[in-house]
Structure formats: structure tokens, C-alpha cells
Backbone:
């Protein structure tokens, strides 16, 4: 049986817990922060997350901030199943990789649709409607990225509901114009397919390898190699190069804060 959760009475709700990313007291990257940071595989598997205290004891949430940068913050979140979250206006844009479970989304006044394991999507800022977490007898697991220092609530997303990235794009069948999948109020999502070198990346970004092998060489000539399924962060003002070292066509997703 589904349990309807009153958003106003829950201390930390799915997604809203990420508002911690704007906390002025949050730890910032130091000068020792590496310019390339790989998200550990154990965290992606849901290990090492911290249980969050909930005012609604029927609700289970585990969360871990895996990266807290100057422009973006990345979290791993595990959420109990069989509940419904209702939003009057979702307060941010959020890029999410849905790693386990299923949710049925009911946008206000629009047709419902489902989000499954393996889906990448952007949750719209200003979204109105319900997210129904299907009971799977375990925890839903997601990787979530949000922008920090977000614009005020009057600036909405160009979409009204979650934008699920087309699997033809993820598989390389379809290629969006100039590689841009989504450019919103707070986040931009691109797909890169060329064997190219990147130098002087001025913005933080999270990169996910969809296909091929990526070798990134930092300014101090240290090489980092990434394979399909890997997620890594490139910090702001990165100087270095990357190359594709595989017979397979290179294809990666990158997510970063939209410049206004």
C-alpha cells in the first residue's frame, strides 16, 4: 500500500535534501583537491551512505554528498519504496541517474510516465505533480547533481516535467544538435562523441563514460583512465588533455552549471 507523504512535514525529502548544497558552511574544495576526481564504485553501489533522521518514521532515506564543488554538488541517495511525494513547485533543477527501482511520475495536467533503472533525466525546476515510488521490496538508488548558488524561484525550467534522456542518444543512434541534450535554468547536459582534446575547462563538470575508454592527462602529466560506467568530476580551470584509446566510438555525458 502506498503511503502519502505531506511534503511540509517531512524534514528531508527526495531531492529537497540537496538544498544542503547551498549551505554557506559546507566544506569547499581546497587547493589540495585533485583536478580529476572519480566517484568510487562502492558509493555508486549504495555502500557507505548515511541514514538521515526523518520526522516521518515510516520513511527511510540514506544520503552521501560525494562531491561538493564551487558550482556543482553530487549526491548518492537511497530512498524507501511504496511512497508518494507530491510537489507544488520543485525548487531546483536536478540531474539524476536512476540506478535502482522504478517511479511513476504524474505531472499536473499531463500524462503519467515511468522512470526505470538505467534512466538519466533532468527534474524540472517548478515541477508540479507526484512521484510514486513503486514498491520493490528494497531501496531506490540514485545519483543526483545540482547547481549551487541557484537563481531565484521565479526562473523556471524550459520544461514542465522530468526530461528523460532518449536512449537513442545514449546508444549513439541519435545525435543532438551541437551535442546539446538540455540547456536549462540551472543545468546543461551535453553528449560528446568526438576524439578530441579538452584544455582549460573553466567550469566544473561531471562526466559519465557511456562508451569507449577515456584517458585524461592533467597538467602535471598524471594520467587517469576511465571506462564505460565510470563517473568523474573535472574541476574548474582544469588544464590538461584527454583522448580516446579504444576501438569503440567515444561517447560521454557531461553535466555542468548553466551560465546566465
Residues:
Amino acid at each position: 500500500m502506498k503511503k502519502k507523504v505531506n511534503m511540509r512535514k517531512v524534514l528531508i525529502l527526495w531531492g529537497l535534501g540537496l538544498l544542503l548544497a547551498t549551505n554557506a558552511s559546507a566544506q569547499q574544495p581546497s587547493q589540495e583537491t585533485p583536478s580529476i576526481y572519480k566517484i568510487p564504485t562502492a558509493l555508486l553501489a549504495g555502500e557507505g551512505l548515511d541514514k538521515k533522521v526523518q520526522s516521518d518514521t515510516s520513511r527511510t532515506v540514506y544520503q552521501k554528498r560525494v562531491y561538493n564543488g564551487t558550482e556543482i554538488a553530487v549526491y548518492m541517495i537511497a530512498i524507501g519504496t511504496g511512497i508518494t511525494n507530491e510537489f507544488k513547485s520543485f525548487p531546483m533543477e536536478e540531474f539524476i541517474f536512476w540506478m535502482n527501482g522504478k517511479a511513476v511520475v504524474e505531472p499536473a495536467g499531463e500524462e503519467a510516465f515511468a522512470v526505470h533503472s538505467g534512466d538519466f533525466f533532468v527534474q524540472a525546476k517548478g515541477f508540479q505533480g507526484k512521484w510514486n515510488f513503486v514498491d520493490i521490496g528494497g531501496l531506490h538508488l540514485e545519483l543526483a547533481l545540482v547547481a549551487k548558488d541557484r537563481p531565484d524561484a521565479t526562473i523556471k525550467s524550459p520544461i514542465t516535467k522530468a526530461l528523460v534522456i532518449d536512449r537513442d542518444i545514449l546508444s549513439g543512434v541519435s545525435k543532438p544538435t551541437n551535442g546539446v541534450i538540455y540547456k536549462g535554468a540551472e543545468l546543461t547536459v551535453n553528449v560528446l562523441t568526438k576524439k578530441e582534446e579538452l584544455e582549460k575547462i573553466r567550469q566544473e563538470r561531471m562526466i559519465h563514460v557511456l562508451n569507449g575508454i577515456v584517458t585524461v592527462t592533467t597538467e602535471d602529466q598524471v594520467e587517469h583512465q576511465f571506462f564505460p560506467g565510470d563517473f568523474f568530476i573535472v574541476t574548474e580551470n582544469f588544464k590538461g588533455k584527454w583522448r580516446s584509446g579504444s576501438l569503440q566510438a567515444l561517447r560521454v555525458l557531461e553535466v555542468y552549471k548553466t551560465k546566465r
